[in-house]
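Data card: per-record layout.
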Amino acid sequence: MKLKSKNSFSFIEILNSVSTAHALQVQEAIKMIAQNYTLNTLCFEPLLGGLSKSKVYRVDINNKKFVVRFLDENEPLERRLSEVRAHQIGAKLNIAPKLFYTNQNPLVFVMEFIEGRALSRQDLGNQETVIKIVRAIKKFHHQAPSENLHQQTRSEMIQGLYKYNQEQNGVVYPSCFDDLHEKLQTNSVALKANLLPTHGDLNLDNVLIANDGNVYFIDWAEAHVDNPFLDIGALVCFTAANNDQIKNLLQEYLGRIPNESEFKEVLFCRDIIIFHVATFWIGRQEERCLDTLNILLETLPQDIHPIIEDIPIIDAIQKKA
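The structure for this 321-residue chain is written out next.
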């Protein structure tokens, strides 16, 4: 996440900008961690992330920095609980920021602010960083209990999102989406890897390299049980990893040289991520404009653009406008 340079908010402004349920929880959270702090002096700095609908802020209290995350209240309780559980597991494994506040009906949680930076594409050239990232991924895959997480796979999520946007929101997808979606569903059944707990959204902003060199994952909203190569595929997607870098990531993950089948499975998982991003983006009708498309393309590696551009998103936008 990156700090926004302008437009900080007071505590009162934050309370007035959220629902009553959110306001009650954030008041409880801040009072718990602030203790005797003058609340009207608090300053909330927005943090920039990806396409998430959650609002995220940094707040400094008693010379300590915290992150306040507001969850989307339209998300089912099960999904919100899954995010909190996944984050709690990650924190115990020391691969997620420490949590200070959550609730049985989570709409707000407060975590520590990690001093550092987001992952960059150049980091795949640093073997020490690659090892730390892959070890963090493996920790979660093999030590997180599956029963505590959302049980829907990524291909099932795409299917649900795709059908919901069509039937409930009246979204018109490009005609090629039907064929692409059917092909994705058919090929996903043939994947060989066992299903394991996954983070589900390892884009550049969700992997933090702390100043002390440790690696932390944030935004666990997409955590679920799925093909473990999905997390590798996301890193490959958003870092524009070349074939050698992909094989290096896989070798660190597997502890041996990957075979051709495993390599192709990671590439397929990368394609799942790309398709999900495109499906999700087209479905957000309130942001359906060329400026938003340009922002999306700026966040993705250049060699992914032809894949997205093969799906006539711009034509669909112009027809719908």
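Known properties of this structure: The mean pLDDT is 83. The domain at 2-116 is CATH 3.30.200.20 (Phosphorylase Kinase; domain 1).

See the next section for split statistics.
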